[in-house]
Amino acid sequence: MVVTQTCFGFFLLLSWGTIVTKAKTQIFMGSNCQNTSQEPLSIAYQANLDKILAWMSSDAATSKGYNHTSIGINTPVYGQYDCRGDVAENFCQFCVSFASREAPKRCPNRVSAIVWYEYCMLRYSNESFFGKILTHPTWHALGTKNVSNMEEVRRGEGFVKSMISKATQESNHLYYLGSFNFSSTQKRFGMVHCGRDLSNEACRQCLEALFEQTHKCCEQNIGWSIWSGTCMIRYDDQMFYRLSNQTSSLPPSNDETGESKDYKFVIILFFICIVL
Ligand SMILES: *[C@@H]1O[C@H](CO)[C@@H](O)[C@H](O)[C@H]1NC(C)=O
Ligand SMILES: *[C@@H]1O[C@H](CO)[C@@H](O)[C@H](O)[C@H]1NC(C)=O
Ligand SMILES: *[C@@H]1O[C@H](CO)[C@@H](O)[C@H](O)[C@H]1NC(C)=O
Ligand SMILES: *[C@@H]1O[C@H](CO)[C@@H](O)[C@H](O)[C@H]1NC(C)=O
Ligand SMILES: *[C@@H]1O[C@H](CO)[C@@H](O)[C@H](O)[C@H]1NC(C)=O
Ligand SMILES: *[C@@H]1O[C@H](CO)[C@@H](O)[C@H](O)[C@H]1NC(C)=O
């Protein structure tokens, strides 16, 4: 059990790239206990909650990376998990089973909770939330480098807008990842993702609400991510996502030797995970 968690933790580092280099332990990305008071859960509710947490953990092993359901009639619990679009099967299940153990600890004695980890989110509540967007609260994380001019900001904005459009209007995947050549030597990478219980239109609204906030919080940085309970956007000059056809996702080499060392370290541990 401990080993699985350790593996997962290090696997996350691989993809967290530049941001994690500053804060290595930041696997957990946020939680929200949704304003509910802390009081002992009824025995019936607790039993349904335990069942739905176990369901999420096992369903994630065979699903396409997301699902939602409800359990119970008189005291129903609504539950949902959603792995990032580039993560499925084993890694999705690692994340969801980890989150299903952690969520009740992050939100003890609460009827509802949302927890975010880098690769998945998990949510439960006594009220149905499927298909509804949440644009508050939001969380964000920033890289260490600033942009050098407004032109750079505008190009980033254009790229993010095009990803939102590709995820919601040009496809119904509710998720898109891509990159562009920023200059002859630099690339930029991006990802947008919505909970896959949302409609295209709800997804677009959620992403646009986040995008509005990036003007204030984020876009002066070269690398940032922002997310709410139902969608996320990430932008970076480092490759941070997994390409589905590749068995490993080595980030491109970069000139800061400290980071290269970190990546090697992580890749070795990742290999150990596979062996286990
Ligand atoms: C929690 O309460 C605040 C203030 O009443 C509200 O703005 C916010 O949307 C609520 N959050 C959730 C997740 O319901
Ligand atoms: C989602 O969960 C429901 C309820 O357990 C199940 O019937 C369904 O097959 C699952 N869907 C996928 C795509 O795994
Ligand atoms: C869900 O739980 C909250 C907090 O205990 C309660 O105020 C609310 O009425 C419950 N909703 C339903 C549909 O039971
Ligand atoms: C980035 O910008 C912030 C605020 O404008 C400033 O405080 C910080 O020193 C800058 N960092 C670098 C590395 O230039
Ligand atoms: C981006 O740059 C790579 C080499 O760095 C090149 O192979 C590729 O064709 C470029 N793509 C575009 C769209 O210019
Ligand atoms: C990646 O895999 C998909 C199917 O899973 C396939 O359609 C696609 O052509 C592959 N792409 C590359 C670059 O091999």
Q: What number is the mean pLDDT? A: 80
Structural class: alpha+beta
**SSE sequence, one letter per element:** HEHEEHEEEHEEHEEH
Span from first to last CA?
11 Å
What's the helix count?
A: 6
Oligomeric state: single chain
Family: Belongs to the cysteine-rich repeat secretory protein family.
Pfam family, one: Stress-antifung
Organism: Vigna mungo (Black gram)
Protein name: Gnk2-homologous domain-containing protein
Describe the structure.
It is found in: Secreted. Residues 27-129, 135-240 form the Gnk2-homologous domain. It holds the Pfam family Stress-antifung. One of its GO terms (cellular component) is extracellular region. Keywords: Glycoprotein, Repeat, Secreted, Signal. The protein is 41% helix and 22% strand. It is elongated. The protein has helices spanning 2-22, 43-59, 89-106, 150-168, 200-217, 257-275; strands spanning 28-32, 66-71, 77-83, 113-117, 120-125, 138-142, 175-181, 187-194, 224-228, 231-236. It is α+β, with helices and mostly antiparallel strands and 276 residues long. The strands form two sheets. The chain has a five-stranded antiparallel beta sheet. Strands 6-9-10-8-7 form a five-stranded antiparallel beta sheet, covered by helices on one side. The chain starts with a helix and ends with a helix. A hairpin with a 5-residue loop joins β7 and β8. The protein has two domains: 2-125, Gnk2 domain, C-X8-C-X2-C motif (Killer Toxin P4, Chain A), CATH 3.30.430; 138-244, Killer Toxin P4, Chain A (2-Layer Sandwich), CATH 3.30.430.20. α2 (43-59) runs antiparallel to α3. Residues 59, 63-64, 67, 69 line the site of one 2-acetamido-2-deoxy-beta-D-glucopyranose. One 2-acetamido-2-deoxy-beta-D-glucopyranose binds next to loops.
